[in-house]
Every structure is written in C-alpha cells, then in structure tokens.
Design brief:
- The chain is 2% helix and 52% strand.
- By secondary structure, the protein is mainly β.
- It has one domain (9-283): TolB, C-terminal domain (Neuraminidase), CATH 2.120.10.30.
- The strands form 6 sheets. A 4-stranded antiparallel beta sheet has the order 1-24-23-22, with no helix packed on it. A 4-stranded antiparallel beta sheet has the order 2-3-4-5, with no helix packed on it.
- Strand 7 (72-76) and strand 8 (79-83) form a beta hairpin.
- It starts with 8 loop residues before the first strand and ends in a 14-residue tail after the last strand.
Length: 297
C-alpha cells in the first residue's frame, strides 16, 4: 500500500534561497523552518495558515525547541544560539569550530535524551574538514564523528539503539549502534547507497514504523527507505529541484512538510520549477514521531 495519498501542495508560498531545517513542535503546534541564506527563522502554523519569520544576524541553519520555555536552539554560522522565535532576541551563544572559519553549522536534531546533535560543513567544499557534534544539556560539546564534508540528516530508532546519519557527498545513509545513556556511537555501517539518479541525500526524518524519509537535493523528490534492510520503498515527486529537509507534523502527525531551495538554479531550472523555494506539504498514511526537545527530560 502506498504511503502517499495526495500530491505535494504548497503550504507557504516562498522564494527561499536555501529553505531548510523543518521540524514540528508538537507543544506549540508550529512547524519551524529556516532560510539559511536569507537569515530567516520561520514559524508556520497550519491551523491558521500563517507563516511568520524573524531575521537573524548570521545564517541560521537548523532549529529545535527547548524543554524550559518557548525559546528554540539554533545552529548559526559560527555558534549554537538560544533564540526567541517570536522576537528574534538571542539569549545565548556558544561558539562552534571557531578555529575553522571556512566551516559553518548545518543540520541537527535532539536525541531522545534531549542532547543536541549538530553537524558542520565546509563552505568551500573542502573534503573531510567538518564534524558531527553532541551538545549536552549544559552546553558541553563533544565531537562524535570527524572527517565529514557536509553533515546532514540525522534520526534515531524508536528503541533508541540505532542512529541513522547522512554525510551528503558520500551518497549514503549510514547507521550506528547508539548508547542512549552515554550518547556514544560505534559499529558504523552503510545501510543505503543512494543511486545518483535520485539526487543527493539531504535532510531526513523517521516515521513510527521505522521508515526513513529523505529529502533529495537535485532530485525533485523525497525517498523512503526501510531502516532495517535498507530497501527502497517509495519516491514522492515534489515540484522543486532542490529538496532539503522533511518533517512530519500536523494534528495527527501524518502530514509531511518539505522545504526546498532556489540556490544554484539556472534560469531554465527556475522556468521548469517556478515553485522552488516554497514550503510544501504532503498527505500520507504514515505517522511521524514527536521531535525531542533540548534540555533535561
């Protein structure tokens, strides 16, 4: 039985240069997303159809809610920051990779224990100079994986024994054995080698059945994979060339929200994909899982 019940529709008419970071906050019933290049942190409320944003003083790359209030934690160019999503007020900054100025933060999420995992990427396309970090509740920073180029999608299995991870240029979804208590990972192996014709794997989410939903940059689609066998299950066409992130949300957690980007597109590309940069939604028969919040749980 197919998971997709309807075609993608536009949730927010936007021309995001680099839409990214989709994440559903089930407490506030809001979808957070960002335009990295536009330096905008967005809040979309499906109940009213309203999308508001605040501008930031640096590029903002990913966003997670916090457990002690209405703030969010975001990745920026040079730091992790705690920010009010309504006013844009930045409450706190914690530097990350200050010694590598050509790198910036990229995708990230909280693990089930409320620790923030965020990766970096080389802005000059230098191979292997980025990393994946784990940020504790008291903002202690540990590097978990080195030798990364463009750190992207990251999710955990429901039983908290596996972590799934994408370093985009490898064209792989890798899996690790995950220790929930310590946050350590080991036994890295390749789960999926993504065929070139599908695009480049970018952001990722997981549903309640353990299926991996992956945004495909340059692929105009979202792909679905079995997290146990690595089998390809489904391809969902999206009317934008560069698909960047995915998140389940809505009242019953069955709507897939999809961000897209206009960056690097030619005039011919834009003519073919005039809705590039929009936030899309897709009705599915799958059910997502609630995103973890940063802080003590």
């Amino acid at each position: 039985m197919p998971f997709v019940q309807s075609d993608a529709t536009i949730a927010v008419h936007a021309e995001a240069t680099l839409g990214e970071g989709a994440l559903w906050d089930s407490v506030r019933s809001v979808l957070y997303w960002v335009d990295i290049a536009g330096r905008e942190l967005h809040s979309f409320r499906p109940s009213s159809g309203t999308d508001t944003y605040v501008s930031t003083d640096e590029q903002v790359t990913t966003v997670v809610p916090v457990s002690d209030g209405d703030d969010v934690l975001v990745g920026m160019e040079t730091c992790i920051a705690r920010i009010n999503p309504d006013s844009g007020e930045i409450r706190q900054r914690v530097a990350l990779e200050a010694d590598i100025p050509e790198n910036r933060c990229n995708d990230g999420k909280c693990d089930p224990q409320g620790r923030f995992w965020i990766g970096t990427m080389s802005t000059v396309k230098r191979t292997g100079t980025a990393s994946l970090y784990r940020i504790s509740h008291d903002y202690e920073i540990d590097r978990v994986i080195g030798g990364v180029t463009t750190s992207n999608g990251i999710v955990w299995s429901a039983d908290e024994t596996a972590l799934f991870y994408i370093d985009t240029p490898t064209r792989r979804i890798d899996t690790f054995a995950y220790d929930a208590e310590t946050g350590s990972v080991e036994q890295r192996r390749t789960l999926v080698e993504v065929p070139e014709e599908l695009g480049k794997p970018d952001g990722m989410t997981i549903d309640s059945e353990g299926r991996l939903w992956v945004a495909m940059f340059h692929g105009a689609c979202v792909t679905v994979w079995d997290s146990q066998s690595g089998s390809f299950l489904e391809k969902i066409d999206i009317p934008a060339k560069n698909i960047t992130s995915v998140a389940f949300g809505g009242e019953d957690m069955s709507t897939l929200f999809v961000t897209s980007a206009r960056v690097g597109m030619s005039e011919e590309d834009l003519a073919q994909y005039p809705d590039a940069g929009c936030l899309f939604s897709v009705a599915t028969s799958a059910t997502g899982t609630s995103a973890s919040r940063f802080g003590l749980h």
